[in-house]
Amino acid sequence: MSVNQQAHTGPPYGQPQPGYQGYQQPAYGGQSLPGVPQAQYGAYNGPMPGYQQPVPPQGYFPSLGFPSKGSPVSLNSDTSSLAPNFIGSLRAPPTSGAPPPASGASHPSGPLAYSQFEHGDVQNGIPASAAPVQRPPASQPFLPGSAPTPVIQQYGAPPASVQQLRNHMAGMTIGSTAASAPPPAGLGYGVGPSSYPPTTGAPRPPAMPGPPLPGQTVAAPPSSQPNHVSSPPPPSTMAGLHPGPPMSGLHGPPPPTHPPQPGYPMQQNGSFGQMRGPQPNYGGAYPGAPNYGSPPGPPPPPKRLDPDSIPSPQLNELPPQQKPRHRIDPDAIPSPIQVIEDDRNNRGSEPFVTGVRGQVPPLVTTNFLVKDQGNASPRYIRCTSYNIPCTSDMAKQSQVPLAAVIKPLATLPPEETLPYLVDHGESGPVRCNRCKAYMCPFMQFIEGGRRFQCCFCSCVTEVPPHYFQHLDHTGKRVDFYDRPELSLGSYEFLATVDYCKNNKFPSPPAFIFMIDVSYNAVKSGLVRLICEELKSLLDYLPREGNMEESAIRVGFVTYNKVLHFYNVKSSLAQPQMMVVSDVADMFVPLLDGFLVNVNESRTVIASLLDQIPEMFADTRETETVFAPVIQAGLEALKAAECAGKLFIFHTSLPIAEAPGKLKNRDDRKLINTDKEKTLFQPQTSFYNNLAKDCVAQGCCVDLFLFPNQYLDVATLGVVPYQTGGSIYKYAYFQLETDQYRFLNDLRRDVQKEVGFDAVMRVRTSTGIRATDFFGAFYMSNTTDVEMAGLDCDKTITVEFKHDDKLSEDSGALLQCALLYTSCAGQRRLRIHNLSLNCCTQLADLYRNCETDTLINYLAKFAYRGVLSSPVKTVRDALINQCAQILACYRKNCASPSSAGQLILPECMKLLPVYLNCVLKSDVLQPGPEVTTDDRAYIRQLVTSMDVAETNVFFYPRLLPLTKADVDSDSLPAAIRNSEERLSKGDIYLLENGLNIFVWVGVSVQQGLIQNLFGVSSFSQISNALSTLPVLENPFSKKVRSIVDMLQGQRSRYMKLIVVKQEDKLEMLFKHFLVEDKSLTGGASYVDFLCHMHKEIRQLLS
Amino acid sequence: MCLLLSFQSFCRAMATYLEFIQQNEERDGVRFSWNVWPSSRLEATRMVVPLACLLTPLKERLDLPPVQYEPVLCSRPTCKAVLNPLCQVDYRAKLWACNFCFQRNQFPPAYAGISEVNQPAELMPQFSTIEYIVQRGPQMPLIFLYVVDTCLEEEDLQALKESLQMSLSLLPHDALVGLITFGRMVQVHELSCEGISKSYVFRGTKDLTAKQIQDMLGLSRPAVPMQQGRSLQTPEQPVISSRFLQPVHKIDMNLTDLLGELQRDPWPVTQGKRPLRSTGVALSIAVGLLEGTFPNTGARIMLFTGGPPTQGPGMVVGDELKTPIRSWHDIEKDNARFMKKATKHYETLANRSAANGHCIDIYTCALDQTGLLEMKCCANLTGGHMVMGDSFNTSLFKQTFQRVFSKGYNGEFRMAFGANLDVKTSRELKIAGAIGPCISLNAKGPCVSENELGIGGTSQWKICSLDPSTTLAIYFEVVNQHNAPIPQGGRGAVQFVTQYQHSSTQRRIRVTTIARNWADAQTQLQHIEAAFDQEAAAVLMARLGVYRAESEEGPDVLRWLDRQLIRLCQKFGQYNKDDPISFRLSESFSLYPQFIFHLRRSPFLQVFNNSPDESSYYRHHFARQDLTQSLIMIQPILYAYSFHGPPEPVLLDSSSILPDRILLMDTFFQIVIYLGETIAQWQKAGYQDMPEYENFKHLLQAPLDDAQEILQTRFPMPRYVHTEHGGSQARFLLSKVNPSQTHNNLYAWGQESGAPILTDDVSLQVFMDHLKKLAVSSAS
Fold first, then answer.
1. CATH 2.60.40.1670 is right for the domain spanning B39-135+411-531
2. Across the interface, do A576 and B197 touch by the CB < 8 Å criterion?
């Protein structure tokens, strides 16, 4: 929370820009809602000032130096030292800075071509104008200096305080931890957060005496960074091992060091310490300082666990020695909820402007707008760190993976502009001669604009005559704002024929629906359901822009042991069915009439969809084939010479005699053995080869599974996975309960934006290189990610490694180029550019990390690892890597402190809890009720998830429904995923992206039950509910709207399960209370933290 | 005196023999090369022309009502001859002696009332041919499976569709029909579905076994052989097969619609390519489908194709248009890369099909070759029709196809199925083989000769489909040793037993028993000579020649034929050694050399100027037509129409081509009407339209009417050519007539006696001169 927020504070960088301010003041202010504005305002400004100001003015330096916890800190610290340079450099690329003024001038006359664009510019322009006002004229060029100053002044005070607070807090905490630790031993752990809030002190009753808490946090030596959770190593062991330090850490050191900062805590507390308190506190606290507003909220993130105090009972390793075992107060350990909440409050209100290099964007859980000013929106790219070590040694030392999570076709909120489409005519996009990078804002024009120097490889390339444009006095092209590729982070090029397969412009893609009509599918009513749905769904095929009708053609196939193709040519009086029994050697029996335009063949299609269920109503065929189905689709697309997508609805293990025939090899006995990996591997390499063929043709496969038993998702999923498709699984599909979910998924899957025949390449500045890729795709070489289809939900995680040095000055650039065929058959290139900072100080790295992204990467890395290594090895490697990351931080960035303190970087304070969730996930630690198919399914699912999805998947969102305010449309504040947090008298909702649980406590008021379920008592609530009854009362409405809203946020429709407390289903529910010890042996958060601490200490010693 | 007497008797004999031959043919449908048989093997071989006969098993006989009972068989297991008028019957003992094996047999109980005055039909002499209707096995409806090429031009396809739709109304009411279409893929249409038309599709490039096909069509239930498991099969069998083969009365609407919606093969054919046509697989599937569902039932697979198979098993030519389809030249140079494989494929199919009693018709219409050479065995071995035309949109095809379903005098379809011909001979004879649309059933028996002529080594053949004109040549060998004289008055006998499925689906058996006198060639040569049937002999020799031509080099066959002719002339000619002028042949041989002359020039033995497909086509028809038609094929008939007299047959000679004549030539495959130079000029001048020249109009009309008459009855429809002097189509006539006048022999030059033919071919006169020279030469 706070951590993140702080991290986000990073953006403040951006704010300094004139545009920003201008923005806020005029436009924003005006627009903003009355109530909100101020806060937002504040938030906005807050960060900015906070940023820069803090550094210099407050002399935080010391603490800053240690960018102890918060990224904010780091920012500050950076600022102090780097800021100038930094900013300087940033602005240097007059790009961002220049815009406003220049734009202001030029825009008016702006070329019509990019009308929209212009618009954008205009906006910029305005701010620009505004900027001047606020800032010294000098600022125009974006001189950081200028910006900062004013900022500082304005907000200076508040922010400073905040930050200071934080820092202090941090320091405090740490220190205090230590100090306090002793008393509340147990508390120690919790310390971090709780401590800050002075208020908290009070609230947290038992464990942490008010004072101690703060103390703890602060505790850390002032200099030390707050982030460190001073988790005292589990005393005993730790102590034993490292007698000296730990002990001291536990006791002495903390208190003394930190005392100084107590003052701050007060203010801060709101932010961190209190879990719940925060908000209110905030409100209270900030109002005073408008500027601050919510933003300042930046909770002093420090978290430290006091190892000393820790002696958590659970940890075996922590045999509390001297001290009585203290339970660690769960409230005292870094809370995801808090972090999320803080970030939301701090950064949710202002747009995130991407102009500045290396800004850490707001958390994925925060709603924010993005303004593209030269870097790709975080919706497209998120990085594990926005500050990359200059050398590989540093990178190795820190062990922080450098990765970007890229979602090239991400859906943007309606308020944001889609990437502009640039058409350079027949000559195609302008590219670097050597590395072939595409023209982007970072390219440097020289020699009066006749040539440009590549920002990736430094090669100098002639500017083609038709692209020539003069430079202005700042060295910028005069048409800078007219050209998206010069001023934006994301844009598209219209590809020329050279970018097309066989040098032929592609035909519009096709969708082929392939329906299993074996006995199971027919009996369950699935076939009828699909056919009914398709009738209406076909009117909603994706369209390009403003086209009247979709260019996509459709085809239909049904199958059991044989395949049935349908000719639905518009000229036919009735559809024709063509049976292909030769499954050993699949082919497409018809050409004309198989793929048709929906509108033209409407009546024939309707007639077909009416008849399919009838035709197979009496089928007795139970066996199915699978590979031939894909082959059929593939062949059909080949014959039609187009790319496309297959929607396969499949019910059973394909055991019929045919290529790709599978056998049931499910064997739970393999779990936890060296052979467990085979469960994740495909049975046969047949599907890999098939996938390869599919990719070559641009045939993407989406698979809907309706298994009643094992059907080997690991194998069936190979093709969908490697072609960039999706798998949906509805185990024990029942029409009544699952149809809504299935239909929603289907609708969304059919309608969503998708590109075909895609190739993605990531180019980077010299010095780093994309070395590894995770996601649903196929790679035939080491650089190109090939996807037969790529939809707006698919994410690719790319890992970078150093192959040379980077320089702080030039930073590191990424350019992700995606060549794809749009749904209308247009060949396009989508380019995303992102500039990152480089650092020579590890502290900078740790200050600019994003834990959510890190977890996304780690999970994908681990999930791929299970294919080749025993699960235990994978788990150990994960733990080890995280321990190293944290240990490195502790060693190099944290101020000296007792080894007994667990000190976490502010940006990574949630790393342990999230990592624990990953470790406890079904793939890495399956419970007895988790089937092999589930694991394979989840494994593949996670591999193409974006950061937001992994975030909620691993740490589900738990909302107390009964606390919801029925009159507002806001969500109730989330609570932490622990049974302790549940109250018998409340109803909760838990969602993880796949499921929604509605948990009903045993002593919930009858009225509520009546309102929500329409039954009179707890016992009458049915377990079988798959939707909430529609009742006309505010509570029901509210809950349903919450559910709808959540559903709307996810790419898949979540299964709703009603769980009654103490009912048998509750076991399932508890599985998702990830902070608790799980039944399958997964550690609780507290235990894991202790374990982590132990590992760190071992590494440090 | 003696000489005179013998001459008189000879003349009498001639007259009698001609009558005798004609009678026999009309009654029994049999024409023997020799009607008096040489009594020993040695003598028989010296006769040059083998003892053989042309048998028309189902010759239409208005006066032959079938009897409604089973034939009485000889009880000797190796004989099983049918009781016939030649058997000796002991009425009192109710015994009969088999005239082939001399086994004495008891009459069955039903014959208890038999006596000299109360004879069953089969004992009456006029019933040397008799037909039984037997109640054996279930009556299976006839099956018609259309296999339709969709790689046609739009116009062709449309015409074909119409023909097919029309044919539905011609089919027997309860016949089962099925439809397979093919182009790049092969589709087996399921005919019973409402609301959606359903078909099973097969790749056109992959050969499938019958088992695979049946599995893929969902017909996997073990096929029950029709003949045996009477009780097992009935209820379920029709259900299974009904998906693809439906009674025509039930689904003719459906099928008509289906045919109507039939589209051209949709797969794109790029410039310079032939459409991909999977004829081989389509046929294979058709055969497999019937094999699995209706073995041993009368069924017709009717293949309609408009081009050569270009892919998969049975492909005849690649799809590159720049590579032309094989010619005779390529074949001689061993340059036809697909031919052997394709032929093998179709042979396999033909054999499978024949084994199950199903026949395959090939209707091919295209301007270029379509692979008949490779596919010919499908029709040849199964008794199917082969029709070759230029387009489905011609009356040639349309009427021919219509005629397939023509009905006989009693309203029955002129087609029969699944015939099984069993030949029995008396001891002095053995069976050397048969040539015709049949396959061997490999029935080895005592009367099977070791020397094979045609399809030999058996005494039984299967003819999957036959019509009243289907004629087989059956060759015999006299095995009686020279020193084992046949008792005076002894007769050799042959019995033909043809079991078949009548178009009414009845099982019938037609039995023909004939006998001929033996004669000692040394003492009674003139009898043998007089009883020579030169027409039959010419056709029988021609069949042998054509049969050989299928496997041997053309020149070898001609040489063989010539040698046979020379030997015959040597044997039966009257001449002085080395004096060609003295050479004479008796009347019963007089026409024979001329037949052979024309045979040598015929497309059956000459491939020059014919494509391999055409050769196959001509040979196919030659091997199955009856004697009259065969003779027309060998030596076309030429009629002349002029103001000088009534229409008259004239010599097939260039001298017959006169300016003031209209000629009508019938070559069986073509009907040519040729207007002489003057006539053509008159016609151009429009005299026929002038009332005062009405006679000219009538003259012009006369050949047309006659041609029409021929066209009405001929199957397949001949190509109808109407041309005139100097017309390009006149080549049809000019290539057939004996080139007695050519640019080389000027003796008739400038005379009004005919048209010179520009050819280097020898004329009949030259041929005869050589023949005489060689015959009389003592050197040979």
1. yes
2. yes
Instruction: Answer whether B267 touches A (CB < 8 Å).
Output: yes
Taking CA A972 as the corner, what is the angle to CA A969 and CA A978, rounded to the nearest 5 degrees?
A: 155
- Determine how β-strand B129-134 pairs with β-strand B439-440: unpaired
Could you tell me which chain A residue has the CA closest to the CA of B195? A574
Mutant choice from B184, B189, B196, B197 vs A, greatest count of A C-beta within 10 A? B196
Contact B201 A591 (CB under 8 A): no
Helix (H) / strand (E) element for B628: namely helix B627-634
Question: Could you read off the pLDDT of B695-709 as tens digits, one per residue?
Answer: 999 999 999 999 999
Residue A327: the pLDDT is: 61
**Residue of B184, B201, B264 to mutate, testing the A interface (most A Cβ within 10 Å of its Cβ):** B201
Q: Does B270 touch chain A (CB under 8 A)?
A: no
Q: Across the interface, do A573 and B257 touch by the CB < 8 Å criterion?
A: yes
Smallest CA-to-CA distance from A241 within A319, A327, A324 is with A319
Mean pLDDT of chain B: 88
B543-589 pLDDT, tens digit per residue, is 999 999 988 888 899 999 999 999 999 999 999 988 999 999 998 99
Name residue B457's amino acid.
G
Cα of B226 to nearest chain A Cα, Å:
27
Exposure string over A722-758, b if 16+ CB within 10 A, otherwise e = bbbbbbbbbbebeeebbbebbbebbebbbebbbbbbb
B150 touches chain A (CB under 8 A): no
SS3 A979: helix
Q: Distance from B195 to chain A by nearest Cα, in Å?
A: 6
Domains B39-135+411-531 and B143-218+242-404 share a fold: no
Interface residue B220 vs chain A (CB under 8 A): no
Residues of chain A with Cβ-Cβ distance to B203 below 8 Å are 582, 585, 587
Which residues in chain B have their CB less than 8 angstroms from residue A640's CB? none
pLDDT in tens, B178-219: 999 999 989 999 887 777 888 999 988 888 888 888 888 887
* CA pair distance A950, B742, nearest whole angstrom: 98
Q: What are the CB-based long-range contacts (under 8 Å, 24+) for A890-894?
A: A890/A228, A890/A1096, A890/A1100, A891/A1100, A892/A397, A892/A842, A892/A843, A893/A66, A893/A67, A893/A68, A893/A225, A893/A842, A893/A843, A893/A846, A894/A66, A894/A68, A894/A220, A894/A224, A894/A225, A894/A227, A894/A228
Q: Does the pLDDT of residue B486 top 90, yes or no? A: no
- Given a contact cutoff of 8 angstroms between Cβ atoms, the answer to whether B1 and B515 are in contact is no
Tell me the C-alpha to C-alpha distance, in Å, between residue A61 and each of A621, A848, B27. Answer: 75, 17, 129
Say what the ipTM of the complex is: 0.83
Bridge pairing between strands A995-1000 and A987-991: antiparallel
> Of the candidates B369, B384, B303, which has an alpha carbon nearest to the alpha carbon of residue B338?
B369
* CA separation for the pair A367, A346 (Å, rounded): 11
Q: Give CA torsion, residues B44, B45, B48, B52, to 10 deg.
A: 60
Q: Residue A272 corresponds to which tokens in the numbers above?
A: 């961190």
Confidence band, pLDDT 50/70/90 cuts, at residue B83: very high
Residue ranges covered by each domain of chain B: 39-135+411-531, 143-218+242-404, 544-775
Chain A residues closer than 8 Å to B257 by CB: 573
How close, in Å, is residue B198 to chain A by CA atoms? Answer: 4
Q: Given CATH 1.10.8.10, say whether it is the number of domain B544-775.
A: no
CATH number, domain B143-218+242-404: 3.40.50.410
Positions of chain A with pLDDT lower than 70, given as ranges: 1-327
Q: Work out the angle at residue B559's Cα, subtended by the Cα atoms of residues B554 and B565, and round it to the nearest 5 degrees.
A: 130
pLDDT by residue (tens digit) across A1070-1097? 889 999 988 878 889 999 999 999 899 8
